[in-house]
Specification:
Strand order of the largest sheet of chain A: 2-3-4-1-5-8-7-6
CATH architecture of chain A: Roll
EC number (chains A, B): 5.1.99.1
Order of helices and strands of chain A: EHEEEHEHEEE
Protein name (chains A, B): Methylmalonyl-CoA epimerase
Number of strands of chain A: 8
Organism (chains A, B): Phenylobacterium montanum
Distance between the termini of chain A: 20 Å
Oligomer: homodimer
Shape of chain A: globular
Largest sheet of chain A: 8 strands, mixed
Family (chains A, B): Belongs to the methylmalonyl-CoA epimerase family.
CATH superfamily of chain A: 2,3-Dihydroxybiphenyl 1,2-Dioxygenase, domain 1
Radius of gyration of chain A: 15 Å
CATH topology of chain A: 2,3-Dihydroxybiphenyl 1,2-Dioxygenase, domain 1
Strand content of chain A: 25-35%
Enzyme class (chains A, B): isomerase
Helix content of chain A: 10-25%
Largest interface: A-B, 43 and 43 residues
Structural class of chain A: alpha+beta
Number of domains of chain A: 1
């Protein structure tokens, strides 16, 4: 089912500081603009590598779902891993049929790449919060 | 400096259980054999995706460096992210010159891909344990 590893989600208290880190310390040369996803409660910024991305996420608003993660990890850290799947609805149904817990209502919602995504609970994924996303039409 | 995202390191109390998860739950179709790296204190198993890998790591021996991580995260979880660099010695020197802490002696040592690697302390990397590895000669 899973295809490419699309991105690693990295939570940060400050996207600006993280951008300095990836740009100036690690020498990444392609970093997008920061943008907000109010419905998801996050600011997002992509660090583009030749084969995948780092998705920097910073809390947006008081109800952001990543406040808890940053309370436990004040400097930030690895938050989720995202894999591409050919059919997000089939993936959702398959995860459920195999006993995994799909977060929220289970209805895929629009992710930062403009394609629908779901999240699977880390308790069923070896402690890893797994995002599944429909394969984007444009190559990244 | 950094090139491809080579792999995400995922610590697990049981590679066998994690292989079931990636194979049977997530449908990964290319998973290598488990092998030991006694000097690094880990068992390793690669889940091969079209563009990158998940590196499953399980403690090997009582002195394994990942016992502490698993004590905090008994189900396992994301342990490190590995980026490829063209020259591991230049990367080591550049990290140090920019004030980052390279773990251990700082001398690159052989990693699971048969090329030298270093690790950079998460306190300097936004809470992410970063592995840098020399670009492997064979495509993965």
């Amino acid at each position: 089912m899973i295809g490419k590893l699309n991105h690693v989600g990295v939570a940060t208290p400050s996207i600006e500081e993280s951008v300095k880190l990836y740009r100036d310390m690690l020498g990444a040369t392609s970093i997008g603009e920061k943008f907000s996803m109010p419905e998801q409660g996050v600011w997002v910024c992509f660090v583009n590598l030749p084969n995948a991305q780092i998705e920097l996420i910073e809390p947006y608003g008081e109800a952001s779902p990543i406040h808890g993660f940053l309370a436990k990890n004040p400097k930030g850290g690895q938050h989720h891993v995202c894999f591409e799947v050919p059919d997000i609805y089939a993936a959702r149904d398959e995860m459920r049929a195999k006993g995994a817990t799909v977060l929220g209502t289970g209805e895929p919602r629009m992710g930062a790449h403009g394609v629908p995504v779901i999240f699977v609970h880390p308790k069923d994924m070896g402690g890893v919060l797994v995002e599944l996303m429909a394969e984007p039409k444009a190559a990244h």
